[in-house]
Design a protein that fits this description.
- The protein is 38% helix and 15% strand.
Length: 351
């Protein structure tokens, strides 16, 4: 019966990091530094947990299909923008592609980058065009426009996963002015940078900015994302979306997390401090980053080889070998708790 499976799913798929429990069992290590998934190492605040617990009392009912609690909190936090939501950034991406892309239409993706863009576009029957970045992983806006001129959606991640670098606002504006379709700007890590793309939202009617509560707001396990969208697109996105997608517990927790700006600011400061320390104290070249992770060039080692060596020492990092267009001598390392970062720094410097 496997013949019934669509060809695009016969192989490939998203590549997950090793589970801490698997490493602990395999190597007999009790304490694992989890630096592979760009997570916030701190749990949510007591206020966020209390909001989530309160919402549990009503989970016998379907959640609010309009997600009013969260969208009201987002408008209070950012201003009067049209918002849409999804099950993590992934859910926003899937629904946006479902809304706009007919089978056979083009989705252009600036690479190397997050692999799920490609998977979501293929699931909708889209035709993928990859647009390689420069040698320093910057984006040539003219080259991106040329390759994506007729694409229904162009995808640009900034700060980019896994390279960590952000694309200047003026370059994003150049892309917006040059393409005929939508630009999806993935801002999952933007809070850790000094870039502000929001002024572009009200200037351009072909920009969607996706964001997530998984990183700075420490809600990765609740899977909640959102996007700033043009007002003309919002009703069509809502029509295309799966009913009752964002659950009421996630919604309540996310709304409460937005109110705790001081906690977010502390984490951002920690990330910026450790990015600097990684660059200064790791013996391998650490690329500049605007995200809550760094990419490290571990040549002459391969990325998979270094991941395995560090796992044996109780440190989980991500190999970049699965990222299209990226040579296999890079690893991606999150900023975690101080002890995790110190352990990584010590162990990689021994290899």
């Amino acid at each position: 019966m496997e013949r019934l499976v669509r060809l695009c799913y016969k192989q490939g798929g998203y590549q997950f990091a090793k589970k801490p429990s698997d490493i602990a069992r395999e190597y007999g290590i009790d304490r694992i530094a989890r630096l592979a998934s760009n997570e916030n190492p701190a749990p949510p605040s007591p206020a966020v947990i209390a909001a989530a617990e309160a919402a549990l009392h009503d989970v016998n009912r379907y959640p609010d299909e309009r997600v009013d609690l969260l969208t009201t909190a987002l408008r209070k936090y950012y201003g009067d923008y049209p918002f849409v939501t999804g099950v993590g950034m992934d859910g926003v991406i899937e629904t946006l592609i479902r809304t706009l892309v007919e089978p056979g239409e083009t989705v252009a993706i600036s690479t190397p980058t997050f692999s799920f863009y490609r998977l979501a576009a293929l699931a909708q029957g889209g035709k993928i065009v990859t647009v390689p970045r420069e040698k320093d992983f910057s984006v040539d806006p003219a080259a991106l426009v040329l390759a994506a001129k007729t694409a229904k959606i162009t995808v640009l991640c900034s700060p980019n996963n896994p390279t960590g670098n952000a694309t200047p606002v003026d370059d994003v504006a150049e892309v917006l002015e040059g393409i005929d379709g939508i630009l999806f700007l993935d801002n999952a890590y933007v809070e850790f940078s000094d870039f502000d793309y929001l002024p572009l939202v009200k200037k351009y009617g072909n920009l969607v900015i996706g964001r997530t509560f998984s990183k700075v707001h420490a809600l990765a396990g609740l899977r909640i994302g959102y996007a700033f969208v043009p007002s003309w697109l919002q009703p069509f996105y809502l029509r295309a979306g799966t009913p009752f997608t964002v659950n009421s517990v996630s919604c309540a927790a996310a709304a409460a997390a937005l109110a705790d700006k001081e906690r977010a600011a502390r984490y951002i400061a920690q990330v910026k401090m450790w990015r600097k320390r990684y660059r200064e104290e790791v013996k391998y070249p650490v690329l500049p980053s605007d995200a809550n992770f760094v990419m490290v060039d571990v040549a002459p080692h391969a990325g998979d080889e270094m991941v395995e060596k560090l796992a044996r020492r109780g440190v989980i990092v991500r190999s970049c070998g699965s990222f299209t267009g990226l040579p296999d001598h890079y690893i991606r390392v999150s900023v975690g708790d101080d002890w995790e970062n110190e352990l990584f720094k010590r162990e990689i410097n021994l290899l």
